[in-house]
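Task 17 of the worksheet. Students: predict the tertiary structure of the chain below and write it out as structure tokens. Keep your answer in the requested format; marks are given for formatting as well as content.
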Amino acid sequence: MPSMPFRFLLLWSFAIAPFVFAAGVAGDFFQHTEMKLGRDADRQERADGVQRIAGSSVPADLAGSWDMRGRLDAGVTYLVTGKVRGADADGAPARVRVLMRFGSGVELTGLSGQTAATLFDRTIGEETEFAGHIRFNPARPFFGVLALGVGDGVGVELHDVTIKPDTPPWAIIPTKAEKFLLINDVPVKGNSLRAGVIAIPPGARQAHVKLTYGPTEILSTAFVRANLSGSGAKGFSVARDIVAPDRAFFWRDGDDRDHWITFDIVNPSTRPGDRFRASVKGAGLAGWFGFDFEVVEGAVNAPPANSPRHRPPHRLALPASPTLSLDLTAVEWDETGYKDGRPAWRTRPSHGYTQSGNGETGAYLPWAEQNQPGESVHSLQTDSAGRPYVRLHTRALDTPIDLGNGRVLPHQASMLTGQMLDEWCHRRGIYSAQLLLPDRRGAWSAFWAVGRRTSTRATLWPPEIDFLESFNGAYGADYRPDSTSAGQHAGAHGSVRREIADGFHAEAADLGFSPELNFFTQIHHYATLIEDEWVTHFRDGVEFFRHRNITDPSDGNDDWDFYPIINVAVKTGKDAAYDEGSGDLRWYGLQYYAPDSGYSLAPHTESPPYKNRELLPRPKL
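Model answer:
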């Protein structure tokens, strides 16, 4: 929906400020429509296109908003930009905390169960530019400003604000719910059955079905495998009469959107009305998709003469020498990120010692081991073949750590981050690591990267790229020795608000990798290539998952980069023993390859199952 011209002011002091929307839709709406007032705001004036609201109490929390239903379109993403400053009664700069919000109520806050999406939240003095995106949700239709703790005679001025439709980087890839299939040209939502039947002729020995990737462009890898169901069958014994194809069907960038899948009918039926049910399920889509085949007199069921085009995975060829390679015999760490004044690997997240937002039950507190003697959280070790590695150790603590405010954590987690190591921080290129992962339930290991402000080394989240995650049942799901994940978390840089997570979780054997592959007993090579257009994840040099790069900033700011992280979180029941198998990660290597280092991509033409490319010899555990 186009932008709207308007000027307005939210104040305590009645200072005037412009609020301008680009032309297109009912420009005089904001000029002539009263704001709905909330919090301490109790009066307003409108004159010469300016809205004025004020409150009688000091300090005051002022809210003014408009109901945008019917003016902004549901599901459309809008860019809000402008300039804001605090000002006293004489127009001099003043410090004010200002929030630009869309809320479910006129107060634009969490009062009385209201919800809000914040575009801008900062304590400011001098004039400050802001930019933020919002996907309009009619459940939060009120748009406006919330000013907190406004002092006597102090107001807030907004200048040159615009609202216009826009596509930020994170809105390029459809959400998981939007990744549906068309089955023989009939749209089917995830976790549902196709309406109608797919007709096959009497006596058919094969049943063919066309699967079409729903979104118009393939921007994120997806795959399915076929399954059979005894439900809904008539005249067929699925277990005896039907054989589903035993392979994965991929949609990768550049592929045709159609796939034809064929089921073999071992014992055909000539009786019209006999039927059987099948489904497909995999990763990168919105769940499972079901469909029924039925014997119909005169039916035609055949694939096209020319098969749709689907490319093989990429094979990553690395140059002989990386741009950077970590010396594992000389790794230093400290919780500050500095060791004797030198930048070092940091042993905790930048925001503290816990990741409570993930529901983790482990603390990143190296000193906990000192207070409760045990093995070191981080240590330099050598394996049975003489290879150096860094061990990241997790365990159940003898006594849970009480962090106050009801936070009691019973487990020790382990983390090393490169936040302060400038040479390891980049926006583009390849991050590569050799790892042996823990197998203990609840030992959630990861190799990933988070954004930071290059000039200050301050963390920016989002963005985040997960090169590898091994959840090990952290969210309750079963897992196998070849379970593996990768993904991106995107939104406005540093907003601490994720707009989308685009990820991919699968068992490697289902994707064509060796059934002998075991991430818990073998050392494997994990790499991610970050390019302008694409982020490509590899397992042992073979493409595992690829999606459009959605991590760039929406405001064009180039003062940022990624820093790498390797960690083992703990996420399990607080009373869980957390003692089976191993909770430790062995880190055998880290490399970075710059964009001009000479790597290349080529088709991986090996037929599955692929050779197990573990790094030998296999270590003794």
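Marker's comment: The longest helix spans residues 366-371. The two ends are 61 Å apart (CA to CA).
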